[in-house]
Design brief:
By secondary structure, this protein is of the alpha/beta class. It contains 11 helices and 19 strands. The strands form 5 sheets. Strands 9-13-8-3-6-7-14 form a 7-stranded parallel beta sheet, sandwiched between helices. Strands 16-15-17-18-19 form a 5-stranded parallel beta sheet. The longest helix is centred in the N-terminal third of the chain and has 17 residues. The relative contact order is 0.09. The protein binds flavin-adenine dinucleotide. Flavin-adenine dinucleotide (FAD) binds next to helix 8, helix 9, strand 18 and helix 11. GO terms for molecular function: electron transfer activity; flavin adenine dinucleotide binding; iron-sulfur cluster binding; metal ion binding.
Length: 397
């Protein structure tokens, strides 16, 4: 919206209520003008300044925006180990690039990474931009944002994808802000509107109750993040070759605002739920913390699984937030997922839909989890699980 200066009475009401702080008073007088027209509806009109007709849009795309070509995937690595989500995104990026008829490139930043690019070609990249520099040894928002931003401005990709990991979420937001472009976070589906060459980035919205497809019509690059395990990793093509580009960057440690003093590694059985092949997850239906750990822990231990839970279980203090599965937790894709005393709220289900087999135990036959699971058992999980342990151990041997 924009304020119609002739009709504005400078009441300031529109400025206060605008949710995106996009309005300001055009009069800017010290003394508020006397209110003569009460209706704020008549003092504002839909702005036409940014509206274009379809023909103009196409012309705009063919012009300024059309200079941007190619799909990029930011390759996340730690100590030379590529994050699986980056390989998953190369698969998704390959499909987007093929639909657009453009190159797929991986962007790899770090130190002493020579040779790491080979696997990126095998997973679908035509090109790899490798920036190997001591200052990039550990991830820092400041340095990575500067380098990725500079590469984008130099090589002009139309799409940039990143994993929705701790690093990827941080970097994507920083780069999008730096480049003043659009970013759609936590996408579950990526596609292309081929007529308009637009990225269609789909993600759950309004608490997971609707799927929203978001497009960035007027800015480039179009950026999106995707959580680990949401996209299936493609099969590598052994020996597939690509082009290595090594852009020069000038980075000085002494010019940076942050220093990495120490890296503290976290070890432990439970460390990474996302990579687990078997997950035993519990919900509020398990009653209390003691039963939760007795039931989930004993089953997980017996069959080599890891323990996860719902937000209700986390909020009750039964397990740490990092083991929460779902929309505001982790997305998982194990071979086997046990949902014990879990109702099956949509926010939980979006995090488990990549599982091969879901086994649910719930005392309520109407629980929504039974609409999603592969096998369902109606009954008391506290009584059923102890009787399942032995047969499952035999079965999974
Ligand atoms: P409940 O819904 O209370 O279900 C308990 C179930 O246990 C019931 O179905 C009951 O029939 C069954 N039960 C009871 N006793 C037994 C028994 N003895 N044996 C077997 N079954 C029994 N939730 C998540 O999990 N992950 C998220 O990431 C997440 N993000 C959210 C984000 C937003 C914005 C919002 C609004 C909510 C989010 N939630 C999330 C919360 C979600 O909506 C549900 O409230 C939550 O998943 C419910 O957890 P639950 O299934 O453990 O509990």
């Amino acid at each position: 919206c924009q304020v119609i200066p002739e009709k504005c009475v400078d009441c300031g009401e529109c400025v206060e209520v605008c949710p995106v702080e996009a309005l300001s008073s055009p009069k800017n007088t010290e003394e508020p003008a006397p209110i003569t027209t009460p209706a704020k509806e008549v003092c504002m009109e839909q702005s036409t300044a940014n509206q274009t007709n379809p023909a103009q849009e196409v012309a705009q795309l063919e012009g300024e925006l059309g200079r941007y070509k190619g799909v990029w995937v930011f390759i996340e690595q730690r100590e030379g180990h590529i994050a699986p989500v980056s390989l998953e995104l190369l698969g998704a990026g390959r499909q987007l690039a093929d639909k657009l008829g453009v190159e797929l490139a991986g962007v790899l930043l770090g130190y002493n990474l020579s040779g790491l690019e080979a696997s990126l070609y095998e997973y679908g990249a035509d090109k790899v931009y490798l920036v190997d520099h001591p200052v990039l040894c550990y991830y820092r928002t400041e340095t990575y944002m500067q380098v990725v931003g500079k590469l984008v401005q130099e090589y002009l990709p139309e799409i940039v994808l990143m994993g929705a990991t701790t690093t990827g979420r941080d970097l994507a937001g920083a780069v999008a802000t730096e480049l003043a472009t659009g970013l759609t976070a936590d996408c579950t589906v990526l596609d292309i509107d081929q007529a308009k060459r637009l990225l269609l980035a789909t993600r759950p919205a309004f608490g997971g109750n609707i799927m929203a497809t978001i497009v960035a019509k007027k800015h480039r690059p179009q950026m999106a993040t995707v959580r680990p395990k949401v996209m299936k990793m493609g099969d590598p093509v052994p020996g597939r070759q690509g082009v290595l580009v090594k852009p020069e960057v000038s980075l000085q440690e002494e010019n940076l605002l942050t220093r990495v003093l120490e890296i503290v590694q976290e070890y432990g059985e439970q460390a990474n739920l996302q990579d687990a092949e078997i997950i035993v997850a519990g919900g509020r239906g398990l009653g209390d913390k003691e039963s939760f750990h007795k039931i989930c822990g004993s089953l997980a231990e017996a069959i080599g699984g890891k323990v996860g839970g719902t937000r209700a279980a986390v909020e009750a203090g039964w397990l740490e937030q990092k083991y929460q599965v779902g929309q505001t937790g982790v997305t998982v894709a194990p071979k086997l997922y046990f949902a014990l005393g879990i109702s099956g709220a949509i926010q939980h289900l979006v995090g488990i839909r990549g599982s091969d087999i879901i086994i649910a135990i719930n005392s309520d036959p109407e629980a929504p989890i039974f609409q999603e699971c592969t096998y369902g058992i109606v009954g008391d999980a506290l009584k059923i699980v102890p009787n399942l342990i032995k047969p499952l151990q035999v079965l999974l041997k």
